[in-house]
Specification:
Blueprint: H1 2-14, E1 18-19, E2 26-27, H2 34-44, H3 53-64, E3 74-75, E4 81-86, E5 93-97, E6 102-106, E7 111-114, E8 118-124, H4 132-146, E9 153-158, E10 165-170, H5 189-199, H6 208-220, E11 229-230, E12 236-244, E13 249-255, E14 260-264, E15 269-272, E16 276-281, H7 289-305, E17 312-317, E18 324-329, H8 336-342, H9 349-368, E19 372-373, E20 381-383, E21 389-391, E22 398-399, H10 401-410, H11 420-445
Parallel strand pairs: 3-9, 11-17
Antiparallel strand pairs: 1-2, 4-5, 5-8, 6-7, 8-10, 9-10, 12-13, 13-16, 14-15, 16-18, 17-18, 19-22, 20-21
Helix pairs in contact: 5-6, 6-7, 9-11, 10-11
Length: 472
């Protein structure tokens, strides 16, 4: 209530405009001259860069269009932060920002007036650089414009040692109940753990392995996006099959309630997102529940590394067959073949490059986890709205090189006189590079290669006598 009153008071004060002493144009009661300050920001543009064109564009746009100081984001050199301290139960850090956030222009000193030192939070691994702007920064910028008192983001920085981008956030107040610091805005991991535990007796999937897996995911979630749930079949309507592949069957259904977003202290329950269409996937080896859990775990771990990857919401059960299904995001534009067919006359070069970039980030994230996608083909390269694209089939289609070398070692039919297993490790990486090249070729030429299915059979490696290399 107080925050809303403060914002309304500020808005009414802004109607009482005064004139800028420098340019003579009308300014609001916050003494922020949009025209003069935009010029000052533009003069400073050559003096900094984030190393990412899109991030630079976004930050600069917030600066030259700002109506008040709360509406700007800054790029801050990492050296400006001192006394870094890791925040418990997260990968984020608390740090002392020597200069503090920008407040306005001091015409007497002819420089920016700042907070003069403040503690802030440096949030890393929240979004990859491709999806950081549309999925987080843009939303926070809109909030800061509409309700300045709710502003929590000051800008961005980058750790020069790790290369990781970090969002500079206001050091939020402690949780009202446990007095521990929030790891994520309006997300107290300590309180959530207690709440999830209290709910455990109220639900079951009917399978102890699935129950344990979901419970562990809930107790270790650092963000709302990392929470998995057991979703009863009555939460879905309009179930229909939309595809079937080498590893499972995919359905489409409408989920009546959205995913968990944050805790609502007023209603004492979780606030959820909107209802939505989702994809439900089964695995062909229905008797082996470990295969389903392996793919769900791969999706979850991938999500922790790259929040721009495909969403996973939990596990449910088919209402008729009673098969267990992974619940994940429904990707609107379909696979590569469907996407190229439906956008043949409208796809632009910017669309193509953005989609290739998204796929490259997904593949890079897999490699950072020590994973290699062994079945990248037109059916599991998926395309959503807003120029986003995803690598799918992360269970059986993703495995460490070491696991596949172990698999080959157990296959007695393979002769290793010429070190074929070690060559396989290098060839596997080359194969993924070639897979991405085929996707690149298809998107740039808008034609699918005759032999576009680039899955490789690794159960047997046929090698002519006397050859010492693997040929593909």
């Amino acid at each position: 209530m107080n925050e809303r009153f403060d914002d309304e008071s500020q808005m009414s004060n802004e109607n009482n405009s005064v004139l800028c002493e420098e340019c003579g144009q009308k300014i609001n009661a916050t003494n922020w001259c949009k025209s003069c300050n935009a010029k000052r920001f533009e003069i400073d543009f050559p003096n900094w860069t984030s190393g990412n064109i899109e991030i630079d564009k976004f930050i600069r746009k917030t600066q030259i269009t700002a109506e008040r100081c709360e509406c700007i984001f800054e790029w801050v050199d990492y050296s400006k932060f001192k006394f870094l301290e890791k925040i418990q139960l997260s990968n984020n850090h608390k740090a002392f920002w020597e200069d503090g956030h920008l407040l306005g222009w001091d015409k007497d000193l002819d420089k920016w007036n700042r907070q003069c030192g403040q503690w802030v939070k440096l949030v890393t691994n929240q979004y990859d650089e491709k999806h950081l702007i549309p999925r987080f920064l843009q939303l926070e910028h809109e909030i800061s414009k509409k309700t300045p008192s709710k502003r929590i983001v000051y800008g961005m920085t980058r750790n020069p040692k790790t290369g990781e981008y970090a969002v500079i956030e206001k050091l939020l107040k402690q949780c009202h109940f446990c007095h521990q610091e929030w790891v994520y805005p309006r997300w107290c991991r300590h309180c959530n753990v207690n709440y999830f535990k209290s709910e455990f007796p109220k639900w079951t999937s009917g399978n102890s392995k699935i129950d344990t897996f979901i419970q562990e995911a809930q107790l270790t979630a650092e963000l709302p996006d990392q929470v998995l749930e057991w979703l009863p079949e009555n939460q879905f309507t309009g179930l229909s099959q939309i595809g079937s592949g080498g590893y499972g069957t995919v359905y489409k259904a409408y989920r009546k309630c959205g995913r968990i977003c944050k805790w609502d202290f007023t209603s004492n329950t979780y606030e959820r997102g909107e209802s939505m269409w989702v994809a439900l996937k089964s695995v062909h080896d229905k008797e082996n529940i470990n295969i389903l859990l392996e793919e769900t775990k791969a999706l979850l771990e991938f999500r922790k590394t790259n929040l721009g990857s495909i969403d996973c919401y939990g596990i449910t059960q088919h209402p008729v067959t009673k098969d267990y299904l992974i619940v994940m995001r429904y990707v609107e534009r379909g696979d590569l073949r469907t996407y190229l067919t439906s956008t043949f006359d409208t796809i632009t070069w910017k669309d193509r490059l953005d989609r290739l970039w998204s796929l490259a980030i997904d593949i890079r994230s897999l490699h950072r986890l020590g994973l290699v996608h062994r079945d990248l083909h037109s059916g599991n390269v998926l395309f959503g709205d807003n120029r986003r694209s995803f690598v799918a089939d992360l269970g059986l289609a993703s495995s460490t090189l070491e696991r596949w070398v172990q698999f080959l070692s157990e296959d007695k039919s393979i002769d290793d006189d010429d070190g074929i297993k070690n060559q396989f490790k290098l060839a596997k990486l080359k194969r993924q590079k070639n897979s991405y090249s085929n996707v690149l070729q298809s998107l740039t030429s808008q034609r699918l290669p005759r032999a576009f299915t680039i899955a490789i059979s690794i159960a047997r490696i046929a090698r002519a006598p006397g050859t010492g290399e693997i040929y593909f």
